[in-house]
Design a protein that fits this description.
The protein is mainly beta and 473 residues long. It contains three helices and 32 strands. The strands form eight sheets. Strands 20, 22, 24, 26, 28, 30, 31 and 32 form an eight-stranded mixed sheet that branches. Strands 11, 14, 15, 17, 18 and 19 form a six-stranded mixed sheet that branches.
Length: 473
């Protein structure tokens, strides 16, 4: 969340998530397990714990005020055994701090890191010099958790979305199938279950993504968050949850989801000292359902028009909004993913608004050198916006506040430029051109959520709604 309102030309107060590893982002602020305000350089897991990380969780960093140079882009690398396993940009705010920023997702689930290994986080300044470094060990519950005296809390079981073989999968394609894509049905698998569950059945639910299920009733039929369940799944004698089909997604399911496992089958998601239910998606995204590349290629128009302008740093407490005052921060956020493949790194660029037909969709504008429509002449360089590169499906990235209105409008006739319009390009290959069907373009101000808007739907909007976002004095 963002609680400071100031009027300076620009505050870089965003964050970027890594794309080197799997899924989603860490769910924004508001983690209720620990307080991390007093830590100058904290590594935080998606369950909110400092300097503790379990297999399958998201690793995030937060750096306190005054620790780094303000309004700067730093490079954060996650290193183990001398190898960089994830890297991303993090941006400092006006006070030299870094908001909670995801560095690596689903740590260890694909085998790039194994429990017991140490992950070193190194932060480099804009000149490439090491500015800060810390480390954390990757933990995992034993395959079977045996009751008995323990000075620490029992671990939650490790739960993940999977294919029929039980291999971890974080994205499922619908509307077709292209090379490398995984289609349904979505399965659930896991390990590290308690002895009390071994050799018996647990209940599994597929639900619409939420940040924290602890203390909540499991969503059931009729609840807006319910997708499937309760479905019985078997935990073997060694504490492994056997792969179990949950549901077959279709085009109507494009979006983000979690999987919840009710170990004692009492209809509540519980998280206490000696008993924890399991989830793929606690304080992070569990898995996504996305359009197949085949489906995208068969569309008449291949433009990927999406609504990206967002009004909060935390993905769980904001909304896509397109009208802002000059003192408000504007964030850039895309969820669910709408890409050809599982989410990838993009360069995020704010540009002065251009007419869709006269510019973005005009074949004569295509530059043969890059194969797309160049946008660099319209970048908002005058607002000192630092170009950021990070994952498409990431925590929101701060763009404002804004108080410069060059090329803006005088809407009240007083001779002062008081309104400015902007579009957003998510440039996949960072070539400075908008590539139709590859890059993502926000030139939409309708009530469109964060997914694809068809060109037909775009043309049904009023001319005032055919632009990314607007800032007014």
């Amino acid at each position: 969340m963002y609680g400071i309102r100031v009027t300076v030309p620009i505050i870089l107060c965003g964050l970027l998530a890594a794309c080197a590893n799997q899924l989603g982002e860490g769910g924004g602020d508001g983690l209720d397990v620990t307080r991390h305000d007093d830590s100058s350089f904290a590594l935080i897991s998606s369950t909110g714990e400092i300097d503790a990380l379990r297999r399958g969780e998201t690793l995030s960093v937060q750096i306190g005020m005054g620790e780094l140079s303000p309004n700067s882009v730093y490079r954060a690398e996650v290193v183990t055994d001398g190898e960089v396993v994830s890297a991303t940009d993090v941006l400092t705010d006006l006070y030299g701090g870094v908001l909670l920023s995801a560095l690596m997702h689903d740590v260890g689930e694909e085998g790039e890191v194994t429990p017991g290994q140490v992950l070193s986080v190194r932060v480099f300044d804009p000149f490439g010099d090491l500015a800060a470094q810390t480390e954390v060990s990757l933990d995992a519950p034993p395959i079977l958790q045996v009751p008995g005296y323990n000075v620490t809390e029992v671990d939650p079981p490790h739960v993940f979305a999977a294919d029929a073989s039980g291999a971890p999968r974080n994205a499922f394609a619908v509307g077709g199938r292209a090379a490398g894509e995984i289609v349904g049905p979505v399965h659930v698998a896991g390990d590290g279950f308690p002895m009390a569950a071994a050799g018996g059945m647990v209940h599994v639910y597929a639900v619409v993504d939420g940040d924290d299920w602890r203390g909540s009733e499991m969503p059931t039929a009729g609840d807006p968050a319910h997708v499937a369940g309760p479905i019985e799944a078997y935990v073997d004698e060694e504490g492994r949850l056997q792969p179990t089909a949950i549901f077959e997604p279709g085009l109507e399911h494009v979006g983000i989801y979690d999987l919840l496992v009710d170990v004692d089958r009492d209809g509540r998601f519980e998280w206490n000292f000696n008993s924890k239910d399991g989830a793929d998606g606690l304080a992070k995204v569990g898995f996504t359902v996305q359009y197949s590349q085949q489906w995208l290629e068969e569309r008449t128009s291949r433009h990927l028009l999406v609504n990206i302008a967002y009004d909060s740093h935390g993905r769980g407490d904001g909304a896509w909004r397109n009208v802002y005052s000059a003192g408000e921060p504007v964030f850039l956020y895309l969820n669910p993913p709408v890409m050809h493949e599982y989410h990838f790194a993009v360069t995020k660029v704010i540009v002065r608004h251009q007419d869709f037909d006269a510019y973005w969709n005009d074949p004569s504008r295509v530059d043969p050198a890059c194969g797309g429509v160049p946008y660099r002449d319209f970048e908002t360089r005058s607002m000192a916006v630092v170009t950021e590169r990070g994952c498409t499906n990431t925590s929101p990235t701060c763009f404002g506040p804004i108080d410069t209105f060059d090329d803006g409008e005088d809407t009240d006739g007083d001779g002062t430029l008081d309104t400015a319009h902007f579009d957003v390009v998510f440039d996949r290959d960072a070539d400075g051109c908008y590539d139709i069907g590859e890059d993502l373009l926000d030139t939409v101000s309708g009530d469109a959520g964060g997914g694809i808007i068809s060109v037909d739907d775009f043309f049904s909007l009023s001319p005032e709604q055919r632009r990314g976002f607007t800032v007014s004095r």
